[in-house]
Structure formats: structure tokens, C-alpha cells
Amino acid sequence: MDRFLDQVAIVTGAAQGIGRAIATRLASEGCTVVIADLNLEAANATAAEIGAAYGGSTLALPVDVTDRAAVEAMLAETLARFGRVDVLINNAGIFGNARFEEMTDAQWRRMIDVNLYSVFLVSQVVIRHWLAQRVAGAIVNLASISGIVAFTDSSHYAAAKTGVTGLTRSLAMEMGTHGIRVNAVAPGIIATEMTRRSLEAPELSGGWLRRIPQHRYGTPEEVAGVIAFLASNDASYVNGELIFIDGGGTFAWDKPSDAQR
Questions:
Q1: Hey, which bits of 110-261 come out as E strands?
Q2: Does the pLDDT of residue 112 top 80, yes or no?
Q3: Three-state secondary structure call for residue 118
Q4: Which residues of 88-117 are buried (b: 16+ CB within 10 A; e: fewer)?
Q5: What is the pairing mode between strands 137-142 and 87-90?
Q6: CB 61, CB 77: distance < 8 Å
Q7: Beta-bridge partner residues of 32
Q8: Which of 39, 40, 102, 198 sits CB 3.0–4.6 Å from 62 for a disulfide?
Q9: Residue of 54, 117, 157, 217 marked catalytic
């Protein structure tokens, strides 16, 4: 498919994991991809792999998605190199455990900054450009089933991801009249580098798998496929939606506090 031929996408946190799979999927469908990540070495490696596999143009940029000057520089470099932005995927995020009564201000603020404030910031910078140029665009945000299902020791993460869902729906309402669509996905338990150690722990993995009707974990490529649909013209009348990518597990947790994302 060439659904993204002649289009340019910015994918944050795209050097590895789900972000890498998203960038790869978009490039496989003809998209020029900007791989924005704090880890420039890994971003360059991903860009090289994508270029070798699919040709076309890629651009790796070191970006702190919580810093406005860095985000504005990312957009400026993208426009200078490619002249346009059509798609934004807000994928950058972090995860960590902390019991609520022991959580520090720094832990709370860091989680909110990276997982929620960055979605506001990067979206605002890109949307301002789209509005000024009077062009349409598509945004897909990474929420989580943690915004719906209660997990222990991660209230800061749940709060941030719940905020992403609310922000997505509000932006969809505000921007729809300008031809800008904003949607989100809520991945369940996905096998990535970040989650692999937990998924391999017998005391955790057995309980998780019993709560997923498909009895397996998701893959980054499965998340990327849904995101590619939402970002494409195939979803031209889809706006303000939250799509669960969880194997049917979100509403099957009989004891949600036993599990941890």
C-alpha cells in the first residue's frame, strides 16, 4: 500500500519499541518519517534500517519532547528538510512504579511531563503550523489501558494516560472544523524492550495471560497497524476515538489490582 505517499510524519519516541514499529510501518506505506527521540544514536540506527528496507527519506532528530524550544526546532528542521508535516504520532513516554504514599513530587511531575505535557506541547506546536498554513492533518496519541483499568503502584502513569484520552477528545472537537483529526490508541500488554523483563516473570505473566482472551501479548507491529489506519485517509471520518489494542483484555480483568502494566 502507498497510503502515505508524498506525506511526512513526525513520530516521537521512535527509536525503539512501539515507536520504531510505527515509523517502520508508515515508511513501508510510502511515508517520509521524522524519528524524534532523546537517543540520537538509536534514532539514527532506526532511520538507517528503515532507509535500507524501504528507501525514501528519513530524518533522525534528538528531541526532548518536554522542552518547547526543542520541539519548535524539530518542526523547523522538518519543514526546512521536507517542506510539510501531514501526520503527528505522539508516542514518546515513560513508565515506572511507585507506591502512592511513597511517591515523590519529582516522580509525579516527570511522569506527567513526559506522558501528558509532551502531547499537549508537540500537538500545539504542530497544530499552530497547520492552522497558519490552513492545511489538514492527523494526530494519533498513545494512551493506555491504564487510563481505564486500575493497576497498583502506577497512579501517576494512570493519571497521565487518562489525561491523554481527555486531551484527544477535546482537540478532536476543537480542531475538526479545521480538517485536523485527533485520535488515540490504548495498547494493552505489548511485548517490547521496556516490558520484556516483567512479561518473563512467572509470578506476573501467568496472571496477565489468563485475563487476555487471546492468551498472548500484543506486538508493536499490531499497534503500528492500527495507528497507520487512524493516520490514513481510510479513517477520514474517524475523529476523537480511543481504540483499544489489548486482545480483548481491558474489560476482562476480574482482579485488576493483581496485574501491572
A1: 137-142, 180-187, 242-245
A2: yes
A3: helix
A4: bbbbbbebeebeeeebeeeebebbbbbbbb
A5: parallel
A6: yes
A7: 8
A8: 40
A9: 157
pLDDT of residue 258: 45
Q: What phi and psi values does residue 114 have, to the nearest 5 degrees?
A: -75, -40
Q: Is residue 161's pLDDT more than 50?
A: yes
> What distance lies between CA 131 and its chain's CA centroid?
23
Q: What does the pLDDT look like over 39-61, one tens digit per residue?
A: 999 999 999 999 999 988 899 99
All cell numbers assigned to 166: 481527555
- Where do the domains of the chain lie, and which CATH numbers do they carry? 8-258 (3.40.50.720)
Asked if 230 and 138 touch (Cβ cutoff 8 Å), the reply is: yes
Contact 249, 207 (CB under 8 A): no
| Contact (Cβ atoms closer than 8 angstroms) between residue 261 and residue 151 | yes
Name the band, by pLDDT with cuts 50, 70 and 90, for residue 84: very high
Kindly state the cell numbers that stand for 127: 497544530
For the chain, the first-to-last Cα distance in angstroms comes to: 33
CA distances from 98 to 115, 201, 206, 241 (A): 16, 19, 22, 30
Report in angstroms the alpha-carbon separations of 113 from 96, 146, 243, 261. Answer: 13, 17, 23, 19
SS3 80: helix
**Residue 139's beta-bridge partner residues?**
88, 182
Burial class (CB in 10 A: 0-12, 13-18, 19+), 26: buried
Q: Let me know how long the chain is.
A: 261
Short-list 91, 92, 90, 93, CA closest to 123: 90
Q: Is 205 helix (H, G, I), strand (E, B) or coil?
A: helix
How far does Cα 155 stand from its chain's mean position?
19
Neighbours of 66 (CB within 10 A): 18
